[in-house]
TrEMBL record:
EC number of this enzyme: 5.2.1.2
Entry keyword set: Phenylalanine catabolism, Tyrosine catabolism
Any one of the GO BP annotations: L-phenylalanine catabolic process
Protein name as it appears in the record: maleylacetoacetate isomerase
Amino acid sequence: MFGNGGLLKMLRPILYSSWHSSCSSRVRIALALKKIDYDYHAINLRDTESEKDFAANNPAKKVPILKINDLTLTESMAIIEYLDEVFPEPPLLPKDPAQKAHARAIAFHITSNIQPLQNLAIGKMLDEKIPGYGLEWCQFHIKKGFDALEKLLGLYSGTFCVGNQITIADIVLPSIVYNAMEKYSVDMTPYPKIAEINKKLAEIPEFQTAEPARQPDAPKDQKNWGENLGFK
């Protein structure tokens, strides 16, 4: 039996993941919260061609991929909502319709409005065209997104992003803050509410297990992102 409620009999799930992938981090948190044990299949995003079955599982050649219940699931948000429906405890979406809408709105603001524009591949491509512009681009779009996010949290947050329950909004927050601080050196001083909630989440064991540094494929030295990820 797997899952906190023992609802399904299934083979041990397999998560195709990369230590520094924001999308993978979200699913790692969700799996930890749902108490689902899984096998970690590390993917080198610099060399996806070496993974013989990777493209077969996801033609987009992106992580995460979750193999579970004879299904192959892609896209982090779709995976998280699947897990929430099949393993309902603890719930990742509030029962109250308004709070559910707020949680989804914050989650999609991060995953759709911020994350794609600060993507490392975009930054590197721009940097090749105009040296130094890639970092400027990523910082600009993170700050723009965080300006709105700080106001949203001011409207809806309690202990966590929406009220006092961990929701899908909290699951997507740590990775974008990690990127802002560790990849792009964004000053978090203007964003006290974001920083406060992120700090609370960092104290929760299930969030700690999903941290990039704790993944089996994480490099020993993560201080120099230029060496580890190739961003200048």
